[in-house]
Amino acid sequence: MTFERRIFNFSAGPSTVPEEVLKQAQAELLNWHGLGTSVMEISHRSKDFMAVYEEVLHDLRTLMNIPDSYEILLLQGGGIGQNAGIPMNLMALGKNGPKADFLVTGIWSEKSRQEAEKYGVAHLVASSATEQFNTIPARDSWDLSDDAAYLHYCSNETIGGVEFPDTPEVGDRLLVADISSNILSKEMDISKGAVWFGGAQKNIGPSGVTIVVVRKDLLGHSMKITPSIWDWGKQAANQSMVNTPPTFSIYMAGLGFKWLLKQGGVKVIEQRNQEKANLLYDFIDQSTLYENRVNKVYRSRMNATFFLRDESLNDAFLSQSKAAGLLALRGHKAAGGMRASIYNAMPLEGVIALVEFMRDFERRA
After folding, report:
1. Helical spans, DSSP H, in 5-133
2. How many CA atoms lie less than 13 Å away from 314 in the CB half-sphere?
3. For 265-364, which CATH superfamily applies?
4. 348 pLDDT band (50/70/90 cuts)?
5. 217 is catalytic
6. Is 0.85 surpassed by the pTM of this model?
7. 178, 186, 196, 259: which is the annotated catalytic residue?
8. 108 a known binding residue?
9. What is the CATH number of domain 25-263?
10. Mean pLDDT over residues 301-313, rounded?
11. Of 116, 120, 312, 351, whose CA is between 20 and 30 Å from 24?
12. Tell me: the pLDDT tens digits for 158-190?
């Protein structure tokens, strides 16, 4: 099966990358900046790569409007790695020993809580597990601790398709936000959180680099057991180069940031993302075959989950959608159903093509 054009890739991650970015990387692959070599082949401490590194930080700070009081770290290990790195760097700030609060709204925030249990008390503030993670617990039901070092939450649950519409208000508590799957998809007030972190493989570029935005006053509080590679203070002091950084992923992230700036920045891309999500959800809501089970207030603009009311049609739907050039619509194995991830790089045309296919499939079912 071949296509004259690129397919529309709805994968949850690694996910689609802007074609313009891929073409630039392709053109520069063998001879980057006239050096006769690839960017991935030069020293990470060379003048040429350090220029890339500094520009990546500058562009990300511009796109996210990150204050100077925050450090930007470019690390490895993904969000899973930071599930350990965060408690090792912050949990010791608990008033009565290592402790953190966790708001569990899906599989990823629960994974974060379970990992943190290795380093101290991981207190469950609230959970929507009994609602199959189709909503976010009401604010007045949260059992917040007075002695926890921070409150951890996942801004967008990739598997369940649940997203916080706004940053939670938690008073003077330190707020840690996992923004792996909605980073740069909408405007966020960085000053409302102490730590913002996420992998690059959804809205930025290929996997490999993990972004941690942390208030500078929170550096230097790591536990004694913290490996150097997870110690934010040491990484900040060494330009995120305690070990060899993922140079090609950083370069690709930089191309992604340039592309986003060219589109008009986060404010413009947020409007596009809302348009794409509205188009898909509006169709699902009027359908007799498809359904979305997430509370409408908390539907993700990045990961639209849906189910066929007649699940005996699932295999036919997936095989026919793939033949139509619509890839990776199967839902996560833990959730079932279908999932269309419509990150920044997914064009409106891709969502239109998906809706047209879904409409035609429903007509023929």
Report:
1. 19-28, 47-64, 78-90, 107-116
2. 14
3. Aspartate Aminotransferase, domain 1 (3.90.1150.10)
4. very high
5. no
6. yes
7. 178
8. yes
9. 3.40.640.10
10. 98
11. 351
12. 999 999 999 999 999 999 999 999 999 999 999
